[in-house]
Known about the structure:
Mean pLDDT: 84
Low-confidence stretches: none
Number of domains: 1
Distance between the termini: 62 Å
Number of strands: 0
Radius of gyration: 22 Å
Helix content: over 70%
Strand content: under 5%
Shape: extended
Order of helices and strands: HHHHHH
Amino acid sequence: MFLIRSVSLQNGEIDTWKRLKRQEKKREDEDEIRAALNYYTSNINYDANKLVLTGTKEERSKMIRADRIPDVKDVVTSDMGLRYLLRNDILTSCDDARAELRYLLRQDDIGNADGGDLLECLLAAQKATDKWFNLIDESDAKIALDAVSKER
């Protein structure tokens, strides 16, 4: 009985995962920004030998003494989680900006429309995008730029 329940649960998890992947693919087909951010994130490779414990000297000392140094899985999970949160902030701000622009374009007197809310949405998108790009190692960005310039 236990084996049957375990296999059934596992199949349910696999089906859920496949369904979520199909839904995300559909969203990517509808939104180039989502597709680009997901593509980059899905192609990140982590090197366990290059992970660096950051923080102040006191913070690092406390972590070491308390045996609270995160393992590689924790670090990768945390990094990916942050990237997806920032991605969602970017996407939400862009969606809000699109909706605000559509609203402004429907106004009878568009010349006197207040674009303050639109500007706020765009600035929020820029802030989240800056944070997302700041997660990219500078040397990786240089390698990518060099590769693109060689293709021209």
